[in-house]
Amino acid sequence: MRLVLSLPLLPWPPVGGSRARYWHLFRYIAAHHECHVLALRPPNEPEAPPPASMPFASYETLPIPTANPPRYSPAWWRLRVVSLRHPAPAWYRPEATRRLVALVDRVKPDAIVYGMSWMLPYARALPGIPGIADEHNYDPQITARMAAGRRGLDGLKWRIYLGVATRAERRNLRAVQGIAACSPEDAAIFRREAPHADVELVPNGVDTETFSPSAPGEDVVMTGSFSYSPNVEGARRMVQRIWPLVRRAVPTAQLRLVGLHGERMLGDLAGTPGVTVVGTVPDMRPELARARLAVAPLDVGGGTRIKILEAFAAARAVVATTVGAEGIAARDGETVLLRDDDAGFAAAVVRLLEDRALAEAIGARARTLVVAQYDWRASAERFEALLERVAG
């Protein structure tokens, strides 16, 4: 099968949830099919060729201007206008449409894979070619959760945006014939919102050989991509509201914030007692190795969190909110501790810091869970089956 992959990010290096998903799924797909990539390249991201282990037939990137131009500049107003029809306007560029059409004319693919709903407006320029959307979450659900926690003008802004996002998602989904969903909850939403499409559950996974158990350390770690606003808000909640309660009970406790752009987005938290903002690292495994437990204090999100699966694979106990662990078949008290309020979340962290045996037992059971249910190869095979059905 000949495929074009239209992606909002390069799949390498596999740092952050979206890149990790692309890396593992498309490395498998590219080993079995002819894959040509057009990926957008966000500001300040260097050009980098794919590693030898990623056997793409061809790839090209298109740098996009900053998603945050100076307020009230012409570029700022242009993005505001475009956002009335497309809720991720920075990823929709006429030049990208021209490049994608030219690539398709040259390659003549059997199908096009669009990475997340951000790329679906491009599908409208290529209506005659079967399309598959790899949906990492359902954006209107995330927007609704953001709107629910806000009041006044800020709340009004998010409610307006919710209407824009919902209409845009429905309109864009009509342009594709297949949808890969990360969680059973998301799959149910897409079957309702896009009844014409073939929806396949393609869970996020983890490389259980790469992320393997080791003797636990002493720290608490929060990992993730901090270019994603729910992770930023979760980190700020952890540091400003939960962490003081933990330090009151365990004065020597140490929290490390690790992930893409953390040094830029969370630098102001670096002076907080017991908090280290590590930021971008090439490999999460050393950070998980030095941790006793991982945390995911998210109030907003969708899909499933790869960072939790990686912690599970490393046999680390995890404290998460219900939203943070959504979509993962983990049971409270057995393979994870689920707490939604600040005091309860802090108490769970303290409990695991003080009871090493409990932390190790939960971590061991979590490791067993991901080995049994969250292997990337099984997910890639599901994705391949969807491609074959849609491409015919």
Helices and strands in order:
Blueprint: E1 2-7, H1 17-32, E2 34-41, E3 58-63, H2 74-82, H3 94-107, E4 111-115, E5 131-135, H4 139-148, H5 152-173, E6 178-181, H6 184-193, E7 198-201, E8 219-223, H7 229-249, E9 255-258, H8 262-265, E10 275-279, H9 285-289, E11 291-296, H10 306-313, E12 317-320, E13 337-338, H11 342-354, H12 356-373, H13 376-391
Helix pairs in contact: 1-13, 4-5, 7-11, 10-12
**Radius of gyration, taken over Cα atoms and rounded to an integer in Å:** 21 Å
Q: What would the average pLDDT be, to the nearest integer?
A: 91
Q: What share of the residues does DSSP label as strand, in percent?
A: 15-25%
The dominant shape is globular
Largest sheet: 7 strands, parallel
Helix content: 40-55%
Number of strands: 13
Strands ordered across the widest β-sheet: 3-2-1-4-5-6-7
Query: Given the helix and strand composition, which structural class is it?
Result: alpha/beta
- Unreliable runs: none
Instruction: Give the number of helices.
Output: 13
Alpha carbon gap, first and last residue? 10 Å
Topology order in helix (H) and strand (E) letters? EHEEHHEEHHEHEEHEHEHEHEEHHH
